[in-house]
Specification:
By secondary structure, this protein is mainly α. 75% of the residues lie in helices and 3% in strands. The protein is built from ten helices and two strands, in the order αααααααββααα.
């Protein structure tokens, strides 16, 4: 009964989140993503008991700046349609993004050198902060980019709804039909039957959203993107379970009672926005 309440509560929050997606002003949405990235990064390092380290504040600030600079890239559009002024502005934003990215890649290893900790502790800290900076900074930075695509914000709604439906269908599919363990070492409760149920419902949801909302992209494209989200989103959830097992914790945090922390709620969403962004890039610049 506890798990049922967990999923019902999660789905009941969907209207609130979709309201933010469709109605929150652009600048406020970017600020919100910066805040979410900050707390997600805090959870990430806290799982490994590195939250109080001297590196946290400078890396967390740099991570939030990375999210903000990514929001202005807009790399989905066709550069052939840009004017000279537009090209200059686009490359200025791209330059800022690269500077922050390179700055983080250089600064984190240097900061790891300070202190009297053993070499093993320094290496662990460096690896942890580098992983969190790139994984969460780039991941949460994609939310504003996907939201900016077009004028209706439907693709970001797509990025949220499809993995939510996939996650719920996977749970109930595994609950009623699950017999074969999907990954018993990392996540003993996941089954192949649940994974297939999630994949089917994710694809159907994508096709329906493609028909009613994202009409300009085509049903086949929407269905294919949803299919990929169904696969990689579940793998992303499994990867987060691996991180938690490596850290020896059950949940990434306690921000949402009964639901864990930010990373517990966004693991598959980070994969979802990545799949959508890459798919749109390929469609507009390859085909």
């Amino acid at each position: 009964m506890k798990d049922w309440k967990r999923y019902v509560t999660g789905l009941s929050l969907m209207p609130v989140v979709l309201g933010i997606v469709y109605y929150l002003p652009e600048n406020f949405f970017i600020y919100l993503m910066m805040i979410v990235a900050f707390f997600g990064f805090s959870e990430f390092v806290s799982m490994f008991k590195e939250r109080k380290d001297y590196m946290f504040a400078p890396v967390a600030i740099l991570l939030m700046i990375l999210v903000e600079t990514m929001s202005g890239i807009g790399a989905i559009g066709n550069f052939a349609d840009l004017t000279i002024g537009d090209i200059s502005g686009a490359f200025e934003k791209l330059r800022n993004f690269v500077l922050i990215l390179a700055g983080g890649a250089a600064m984190i290893p240097v900061l790891s050198l300070f202190g009297a900790d053993p070499v093993e502790r320094k290496f662990k800290r460096m690896s942890l902060y580098l992983a969190g900076f790139f994984y969460l900074g780039l991941g949460f930075g994609l939310f504003p980019l996907v939201r900016h695509y077009g004028t209706d914000h439907h693709w970001l709604a797509f990025a949220l709804v499809v993995p939510w439906i996939c996650d719920t269908a996977a749970y109930f599919g595994g609950k009623f039909f699950g017999k074969h363990k999907f990954s018993p070492v990392i996540s003993p409760n996941k089954t192949w039957e649940g994974a297939v149920s999630g994949l089917i419902f994710a694809t159907v949801t994508g096709v329906l959203m493609g028909h009613f909302l994202i009409k300009g992209e085509g049903l086949l494209f929407a269905g294919a993107v949803a299919f990929l989200i169904g696969i990689f989103g579940q793998l992303g959830d499994l990867a987060e379970s691996l991180i938690k097992r490596g850290a020896g914790v059950k949940d990434s945090g306690t921000l949402f009672p009964g639901h864990g922390g930010i990373l517990d709620r966004t693991d598959s969403l980070l994969i979802s926005v990545t799949v959508i962004y890459i798919s749109l890039l390929i469609k507009h610049h390859v085909f």
